[in-house]
Amino acid sequence: MSKVKIIGESIPNMPWQDRPQGLVNATIWRYSNNPIIKRNPIKNVARIFNSAVMYYGKDGIEYIGVFRGERLNGLPYIYLGRSKDGIQWTFDPDGIQFVDEKGKMFLPDSPFDPRLVRIDDTWYIIWCHMFYGSAIGMAKTTDFKTFTRMENPFLPYNRNAVLFPRKVNGKYLMLSRPSDTTHTRFGDIFISESPDLVYWGKHRLVMRKGSNWWEDTKIGGGPAPIETSEGWLLIYHGVQNSCSGFVYSMGGAILDIDNPSIVKYRSDSFVFTPEELYETTGNTDNVTFPCAALCDAPTGRIAIYYGAADTYVALAFTEIDILVDFIKEHNVLSASDTGLGM
Amino acid sequence: MSKVKIIGESIPNMPWQDRPQGLVNATIWRYSNNPIIKRNPIKNVARIFNSAVMYYGKDGIEYIGVFRGERLNGLPYIYLGRSKDGIQWTFDPDGIQFVDEKGKMFLPDSPFDPRLVRIDDTWYIIWCHMFYGSAIGMAKTTDFKTFTRMENPFLPYNRNAVLFPRKVNGKYLMLSRPSDTTHTRFGDIFISESPDLVYWGKHRLVMRKGSNWWEDTKIGGGPAPIETSEGWLLIYHGVQNSCSGFVYSMGGAILDIDNPSIVKYRSDSFVFTPEELYETTGNTDNVTFPCAALCDAPTGRIAIYYGAADTYVALAFTEIDILVDFIKEHNVLSASDTGLGM
User: What is the per-residue pLDDT across A107-148, written as a single tens digit (0 to 9) for each?
Assistant: First the structure.
């Protein structure tokens, strides 16, 4: 039994490995057989990375996911995948065919970095696509057969949006990271609310990029926030602008459960950083980019899916108590963290 | 009687001068006694520019306006001004004191470039301020005594927002120009809708920056769109990135009356560009930045208020037929203009 409670479902057959003995700095530890998705996973798709999976547990499907596939023509698209164990994945050979609300085909332009969130009986895919520049796109499905495209929640330019897995104070909430038209060299995480997932407002700052080098260029949301007895656990990415390019590490923070624009705890140290060859070398070196987390509430186990070097999908594990203890132990808050962000 | 009808009020004593004889390229002509607001207009305010005025016509006030004052400490703020003739202005010595919806003081951080729009009996001020970067702020008033700050409509980073002066298809509409954190070197005009002025969505592109040099860096909305029998007349600013800095000219376009994300006509040539010394030289050289237009519907006369060189407020005139004829004569549309901008 964990000290900190995850408020969520039980996933008894979740991918898992215990923390190896003798590791130094292992707040989050890698799956021993990483990466789990390697180059050329689908015909006409060169690489899959930055992808999101969830537990499904019906219709003979244990795990389901939305995957960023980089096609041979260099353009990204979103592919559907299914798995029995969360590790071995089979993919639909064609990208997801979205329709608009009238049932007419509506293909987003170059969608990438999808997140997957379930609220009640509906599954939402949130991604970044080209809307005269990078912007957030969304679709919903109840059966993973029909995917209905929804309105873009925000104006360009924006990236790394992720919905909260339930309404808070009667409103849908979404994190996002306002950006610009290029390889953005700034970026803070904001929160917005909506009564209907069509119109959005009451935007507040959640947290700014950090003063610590590993996150001093920009930050962005990762997996959907995880509801716990301590607040919303946020695993996010932080970016350093090194002299040979960006380095993407993972950070950890805990947001107030009723007013998540307030940060309760935020680690000044990364919780995970590129170390292995499949993270430090690839199409884009030095990227560990978390997009999904499976959580088994009874045991407190967490399996994090992350893109590695814009080339692979990899898997890492932690336990809620280990991660929360680390965040609290390294907690440093600024005024912009603890404020309402008005 | 003009060919093109302005759908709006009559302002019989509106500032006006006929077009001088013998001018070449005078689609819009300057007031002979420009600039109308000169340096050091208020104690502790060094310059007023980029400001918006409207006809008021009651309580002994003919014209009222919201003015960008640049204080001696270099920070901008919004000041209220009143005028009998639209030319000579008197200002409240202190900036506008905004309150939040509970009546508590709420001062926006460094607000600048206000626009002023009346919808029914409420007057809205829309400006740009610092919300962890440039973002759009709003307030409303019914009496120009109490100014109630409203929610920021959009996430950062954004500038040059302007409300439409009436609902279209039952929704409020706002133009804006998504930006970045610096002297943005890109920028297109988008439109967003809202049921309640709190939550915004259904964002569409209106028009991209142009291929013509005078607007090939970025564009942004100017005065509130003017309703005419041809559609919504949009006077906007277009920016060239010259080798010695930005140059701000004015462009003209006409948007579909029921679906203003569609551009019907757009002039490939500027309608106004910095020429006079008070436009080409000042705190920021070569800026003509339109923020307001008074229109007398019966005669079709238009008086444009524009910021000059980030230093002065100046005034210029045109007639609806002259401006619309010029826009149609120089009309060049692209696919992004004529589309729905989905």
Answer: 999 999 999 999 999 999 999 999 999 999 999 999 999 999
Q: Is residue A65 within 8 Å of A50, Cβ to Cβ?
A: no
Is residue A320 within 8 Å of residue A228, measured between CB atoms? yes
Please classify residue B120 by burial: count the beta carbons closer than 10 Å to its beta carbon, then call 0-12 exposed, 13-18 middle and 19+ buried.
exposed
What's the one-letter identity of residue A294? L
Which residue, A283, A316, A301, is CA-closest to A2? A301
Task: Please count the helices (runs of H) and the strands (runs of E) in chain A.
Answer: 3, 22
Contacts of B154 in chain A (CB under 8 A): 154-155, 203
Neighbours of A2 (CB within 10 A): 17
Check B151 against A203: CB less than 8 A apart.
yes
- CA gap B189, B232 in Å, rounded: 14
H/E stretch holding A277 = helix A277-280
Q: Which two tokens stand for residue A252?
A: 């950890």
Q: How many CB atoms lie within 10 A of CB A260?
A: 21
User: Min CA distance, B119 vs chain A (Å)?
Assistant: 21
Is the pTM for the entire model greater than 0.80? yes
Q: How far is A147 from chain B (nearest CA, A)?
A: 18
DSSP state of B168: B
Residue A148, Cβ neighbours under 10 Å: how many? 17
Name the residue type at position B130.
M
Q: What is the ipTM of this complex?
A: 0.95
Cβ <8 Å between B180 and A180: yes
Task: Report pLDDT digits (tens) over B261-281.
Answer: 999 999 999 999 999 999 999
What's the sign of the alpha-carbon dihedral A123, A124, A127, A131? positive
Neighbours of A313 (CB within 10 A): 30
- Candidates A118, A117, A119, A160; CA nearest to A136 is A160
